[in-house]
Amino acid sequence: MSSQSEKPSCLVIGAGGVGVITTYSLFNAGLSEVSLVVRSDYDHVVEHGYSIDSCDYGIVENWKPHHLFRTATDAAKSGYFFDYIVVTVKNIPDGPKSGTVHEIVRPVILSNHQINAARTTSVVLIQNGLDIEKELFEHFDPNHYKLALLSGVQLIGSTKVSTGKVVQIGQDRLSVSPFDSKDEAALEQAKLFASIYSNEGQNEVKFENNARHTRWKKLLYNAVVNTTTALAQLDATRCLKLSKNGTSTEQNLWVPGMMEIIAIAASEGVVVEPREMDFFLNFTKTYIYKPSMCVDYEKGQLMELEVILGNPLKIAEKNGVPAPTLFVIYQLMTILQGKTKERRGLIRFNETTKEVETVVE
Amino acid sequence: MSSQSEKPSCLVIGAGGVGVITTYSLFNAGLSEVSLVVRSDYDHVVEHGYSIDSCDYGIVENWKPHHLFRTATDAAKSGYFFDYIVVTVKNIPDGPKSGTVHEIVRPVILSNHQINAARTTSVVLIQNGLDIEKELFEHFDPNHYKLALLSGVQLIGSTKVSTGKVVQIGQDRLSVSPFDSKDEAALEQAKLFASIYSNEGQNEVKFENNARHTRWKKLLYNAVVNTTTALAQLDATRCLKLSKNGTSTEQNLWVPGMMEIIAIAASEGVVVEPREMDFFLNFTKTYIYKPSMCVDYEKGQLMELEVILGNPLKIAEKNGVPAPTLFVIYQLMTILQGKTKERRGLIRFNETTKEVETVVE
């Protein structure tokens, strides 16, 4: 076993379009030792490395991070301590148990604890949605494991177009915060992560101690626009322009839905200004783009429905905030999610009894 | 030109699965002279007739009604007076102008008027939705043309499976009423139509003087269940059972949506009892079935959105009845309808200007 450098060590889990660019950003900055868990493309990447066409970094050929692992368990067995476990997989709490975040990071948290129980492990969730940290707090005592939970909210346009090949068309802008704004250790870890992630003039990374606000703000887009595009299986611009008079989606669906997000956020003391809506509305009018839920649904993959829409609606219910637009969208989306679960064999619908029979784990 | 019999003469316009069985029902009863407008299958049907596999009438081979026409204009040129113009095409007021009901029936109303201005022409709209008669009243003075407008609300499961071949799996149950319950002439015509349509022990036809009530009642299903299946592209049973806990669609979407229909109907004095919901809810739990809007959307055809959901919502708005569930479903459905319009070339979306450019008529 080789000894590790003195630099902080990062393990990125999730080698999709976003995960690969995230890994490259850390690697290119040169301030950390960078490992990546690559599942399906492992053999190809070990042999050929990645081929990247990036608006931030240009053409990069045959690139590999410092270490590659086939699974998080392999990474855990490596004997390395990973200061940052960076999670870029989708967050699907209603999907197979093996794909939940706490299961994914478990082996590495346990091996870190075994290697050095006194050293802080930061888990950076670069994922959409709300209350995604709760699952980790429920499964791991942060004091026992010396965990710092960090929130990463990323705007990026990046796609894995084929095996080992990634195309990035939208600049990587990352906001890093502790989930708990009063957690001093997490605060320090977030600042450090922002510094080792920064590539001046290329990507854009900000340390901000307002995870909750940043996440609510991004929900303006994800809870409303992203969901709509999945239901219509259509890019966001067409969802706007092909609606009645070219205006009904904006006036009757998206603005009301966004105002509901603002009201729910306000009910827990987070102020999102209505003018923030303009950024996302203008974005949908400018770029013809299919957001993640539309892409996932069309690919037959589960969507991040619960963290993007289910959790905000739980807060609305708890605080008595009316959210009729989001509520109806959510009901429809659960049908789409159920349809995907049946198609993936995660549930089975018996056409004779007309009942859902089996949940396969 | 052959002379006509003394029996009433019926012209059915629309030779889909429903139209063909409707035509056969009239023919088989033997009390009227029956003509059918067949568009795409005309040559085949003239040569071979229809092949019908019907739960009401058994196997019927090489059947033709008394007269076949390629278009309504051809029927108008035949010199026949048609006592009943029976319309079984879809009602799509937001579609191409040539497909609107008033344009479809125009040549026959005009030729009837020319042949015998003193004789009543009944137009029987066997179609879904609300306020579908208004379009006809706007375009034709009922006194001048001696028009009686009749409402046909049909429950039937029938599909044209290939050229000239129709399979009927659900019994034909038709309710016939005058649209205007005080129109004595229409009342008489509706009674007569029910009598010439009836095939004892086979189909089921009722004269009822409550068109509005019957139409609101059927909207419990069409405005709520039918629309949902189009958005999910899934049969109605799965829309129920694949939702959250297998219950969220019924509890959070369909029952609230149906209660909104009941409230809107009540706002104009039509009483639909909440227990009527049970029939439709049980139906969706019993038969695995894709309703018309789902089928139309999947086939790339326009849906009867405006008459099924747009018109009830106009009444809700006029009478100040809250209908948040139906409202959100409608906004989403207009996007689906716009998507179909673009795919059919009825509108064009310019990806450079990001605007809808052209409406082709």
Automatic annotation (TrEMBL), chains A, B:
A Pfam entry, by short name: ApbA_C
Lineage of the species this protein comes from: Eukaryota, Fungi, Dikarya, Ascomycota, Saccharomycotina
Official protein name in the record: LALA0S05e08196g1_1
InterPro entries per UniProt: 6-PGluconate_DH-like_C_sf (IPR008927), 6PGD_dom2 (IPR013328), KPA_reductase (IPR013752), KPR-Related (IPR051402), KPR_N (IPR013332)
Range of residues in the leader sequence: none
GO cellular component: cytoplasm
Ranges for domain Ketopantoate reductase C-terminal: 210-334
Domain Ketopantoate reductase N-terminal: 11-180
